[in-house]
Design a protein that fits this description.
single chain, alpha/beta, 10-stranded mixed beta sheet, 16% strand
């Protein structure tokens, strides 16, 4: 079995032919040795088992030892360094291209995302750090959509800010198709990205707080401050006022009654005389699509395991506190489902291959909510292919899938495009 490759996603605001040519040149220059048959010349290699979006491949494989951070392709913002499995979760959420017909079928009237949707969407990334999936959601969502990211850690939110500024605000690295000097264009033709630093398990309930970033407000501030690299006191105050006003507007829309829905918990969960929170509502407009890439034990992430072994650092989550982790995952998926519009879809994913963290969490949600159902997905190599790549396996819950990076590929293309991370993915719909 070959060593897992690295993966990049192309920034759609740069001319893709120029990006691929530059990346190919840099790979050739950086490789001091080859395997003797010129294999390095074939990179970057398109990941064909992820079907093209708008006729173009999103992800490309590059050599595992390529120093991406040192490359001009990366530093200039032309490519995102992102594992292909994370991209699979985003594509499955936004498009129905990957939905399939199996023995698990949604009820009459239920349907997944349409590929030809052109209306703006509200999309939520409930565990958004480091921000790469959030950027991809914003890149691929219809124009004028809103992509909201949530994370409880200030350090991780700061990392998200830096990545979003690089790829969606900074004139030098966001791409020539972004004109921050035209506020109307920035707000109408591109998705708005917002970040909340708050607890994802109760986001949007009772009192909305924690808005720390809005991409349009950031672009406006960039025009106001001109060439100053750091915000002065008045700029920070101005930013705070803008964010508070945007946050107030969100609460106002929700309070008007649009998109506010009570929890639809299955009857019989508690005794008749025992009270349950059936009237809990959201103080934020609900979302068309929700991604819950939950915190997990990372037992499927090869690089994480290798780093821990090299440093002799104990994993954060293990058998002794597994029940605590699973409880967190249940609260996250439930929070995401609560924030989802009826008729919308949610993707739950982890970089674990542990059934307790994956299928069991999804089963728990399905058992608790009558309006939740599985949308089976498939990752065939081609649109008309009859099977998925050998490293894509169905989970123990029908309709869910696992990416196994340790699978022995059965052909050359699969071998070069094995995912670098073990990954679980489930797509869930919410009945109308």
């Amino acid at each position: 079995m070959t060593e897992p490759k690295r993966y990049v996603r192309l920034n759609p605001r740069f001319e893709r032919g120029e990006t691929l040519s530059l990346l190919k040149t840099e790979i050739a220059q950086q490789q001091s040795t080859t395997d003797g048959n010129g294999d390095q010349n074939k990179y970057p290699l398109p990941v064909k088992w992820l079907r093209p979006t708008n006729g173009q491949f999103e992800f490309y494989a590059i050599p595992g030892d390529f120093s991406l951070n040192r490359s001009t392709s990366f530093q200039s913002g032309r490519v995102y360094g992102m594992d292909v499995t994370s991209g699979a979760a985003v594509l499955a959420l936004l498009f129905d291209t990957y939905d399939c017909n199996t023995s698990v079928k949604p009820a009459d009237g239920d349907e997944s995302t349409r590929d030809d949707e052109v209306h703006q969407l509200r999309v939520l990334d409930l565990c958004c750090a480091p921000g790469l999936k959030l950027c991809m959601l914003a890149d691929l969502a219809p124009p004028s959509s809103t992509a909201v990211g949530v994370d409880i850690s200030q350090n991780r939110i700061q990392l998200c800010k830096n990545i979003i500024k690089k790829y969606h605000v900074n004139q030098m690295t966001s791409g020539p198709k972004v004109d921050v000097s035209n506020d109307n264009q920035a707000s109408s033709s591109h998705s708005t990205i917002r970040l909340y630093c708050t607890d994802g398990t109760n986001f949007g309930t009772k009192q909305l707080s924690g808005l720390v970033f809005d991409s349009n407000a950031e672009k406006q501030e960039l025009q106001t401050q001109g060439k100053r690299k750091r915000q002065n006191k008045s700029a920070r105050a101005r930013e705070k006022r803008r964010l508070l006003e945007l946050q107030r507007q969100e609460v106002t829309v929700a309070a008007e009654g649009t998109n506010v829905e009570p929890e639809n918990e299955k009857s019989g969960e508690t005794a008749p005389n025992q009270s349950i929170e059936t009237n809990t509502t959201c103080c934020i407009p609900l979302f068309d699509r929700v991604l819950v890439d939950a915190e997990c034990s990372t037992d499927g992430a090869i690089k994480h395991i290798q780093k821990r072994e090299a440093s002799s650092k104990a994993p954060l989550w293990n058998d002794s506190n597994m029940s605590e982790l699973v409880d967190l995952q249940k609260r996250l998926i439930e929070s995401g489902f609560r924030l989802l519009k009826s008729g919308g879809s949610l993707v739950y994913s982890t970089c674990s291959l542990n059934e307790k963290q994956n299928e069991n969490v999804v089963r728990w949600l399905l058992d608790k909510y009558d309006d939740a159902f599985i949308i089976p997905v498939s990752f065939n190599k081609q649109n008309n292919a009859e099977r998925s790549p050998s490293f894509v396996e169905e989970g123990s819950l029908a309709g869910t899938i696992r990416f196994n990076p340790l699978t022995n590929a059965d052909d050359g293309i699969e071998e070069e495009c094995l995912p670098g991370t073990g990954f679980f993915l489930s797509k869930i719909g919410k009945r109308l």
